[in-house]
Amino acid sequence: MHEWAELLQALKEDMPFDFLEPVFHSLKPRLLGPGRLQLELADVGLMPVASRLERTLQKKWRSMQGPEATLELVAAEWRPELLRGAGNAAAMDLAEKFSRGTIRSLYIQGGPGRGKTALLRSLKGHYIPARELPRKKQNVSGPLLLDDFDLLRNYDALAEWISKLLDQGQPVCLAGRHFPDGRALSERLQSRIESMPRARLGRPDEPTCFSYYERLRGSAPDLATRALLSQARNFRDIERIAYQYHFPFPESPAPEHVAVESIQEAVADQYRITTTDLLSSSRRSEFIPPRQVAMYLAANYSGLSKSAVARAFRRSDHSTVIHACQRVQAAYTFYEPVLTAIANKLRITLHIRATTT
Questions:
Q1: Last residue of a domain, one of 167, 184, 200
Q2: Which residue, 117, 99, 98, 4, is CA-closest to 52?
Q3: Cα–Cα dist 156/160, whole Å
Q4: Is residue 250 situated within a structural domain?
Q5: Is residue 80 domain-resident?
Q6: pLDDT truncated to tens, each residue of the chain (357 aa)?
Q7: 132 and 220 assigned to the same domain
Q8: CATH code at 131?
Q9: 190 and 239: one domain?
Q10: How many domains does the chain have?
């Protein structure tokens, strides 16, 4: 297929093709029409890295075929072995039941890089990122696989449509970093989502890390690399370990994001309190500083709006988050040691500094 050959040749000019050859070799192209390319991934175990490369492929394809050209990545088959690590067995069982039609709805929850998009794309159905739903919903046929549901905006306009699909018994699988807060949803949709089975993805275990690394590089990790892989918190960490010494992996232009639950857990651990204390309405003096620190980090590193952060902390008004950010920013020198300690736990780089007056 000459269109695919031309795309691969163009990619060789922009990135070290040799290191990504296992991924490209596993992609089977199919031209569905003028400018409409479907790539079927034969080795579903490579889905995490293939999903992250999709945006680069789409951009290059449109530059060659025109702005209306489309490129879609699909899985050749359902195969959950890659993500079935310690703590994920229950989630994989639910996903397998959904793929077989045993259950008609499912919510996949997991932090960045935990594999929720890879799992969602391994299911058979119509995959749509939330940001594209308003313009693509008319074309949905078969099971709906909706990614980043918790980041969806304009719920009111779409809630009725999603609720109708669920009422009609159409298979619907939603995925997000967080379980959506009821304040952001209609009562009808919130009720339907709360009744969904929830598949929560955790940190990949060591055998999964080693297996994924071997798929990416085509060889087993040595002892030094195994030591690095044992510290990997998600699939993106594994990709960085596999590729970092050879080229910078293609990243989204957006800043690094951390699940708000991870921030809450890290802050609670640092201050030796519980997340229940952190999220409570208690005004006890030992709870206020960690709560403000957690809101500050969430507002700057979760990728959520301040209103969404407020909901994640069970607050109804985003002004609470604004106040917390102002308090931490005003006393940044005081808070910097604890912020640095928490940032190290979360593997993020602090990029907010105190303003000068």
A1: 200
A2: 117
A3: 7
A4: no
A5: no
A6: 688 888 888 777 766 656 677 788 888 888 888 888 888 888 777 777 787 788 888 888 988 889 888 888 887 665 556 666 666 888 888 988 998 889 999 999 888 788 888 888 888 888 888 777 777 666 677 888 888 887 765 556 677 788 888 888 889 999 988 777 655 667 777 788 888 999 888 888 888 889 888 888 878 898 888 888 888 888 888 887 877 644 443 344 334 578 888 899 889 988 989 999 999 989 888 899 999 999 999 998 888 888 889 999 999 889 999 999 999 988 887 887 888 788 777 766 665 443 333
A7: no
A8: 3.40.50.300
A9: no
A10: 3
Q: Report the alpha-carbon distance of residue 64 to residue 73 in Å, rounded.
A: 18
Q: Domain for residue 183, yes or no?
A: yes
Question: Exposure string (b/e) for 208-233, b if CB count within 10 Å is 16 or more?
Answer: bbbbbbebbbeeebeeebeebbeebb
Determine contact, residues 136/226, Cβ cutoff 8 Å: no
What residues make up the domain containing 143? 86-200
Is residue 6 situated within a structural domain? no
Exposed/middle/buried for 32, CB within 10 Å: 0-12, 13-18, 19+? exposed
Which contacts qualify for 207-213: CB closer than 8 Å, 24 or more apart? 207/85, 208/82, 208/83, 208/84, 208/85, 209/238, 211/45, 211/82, 212/45, 212/48, 212/82, 212/238, 213/238, 213/241, 213/242
Q: How far apart are CA 323 and CA 188, in angstroms?
A: 33
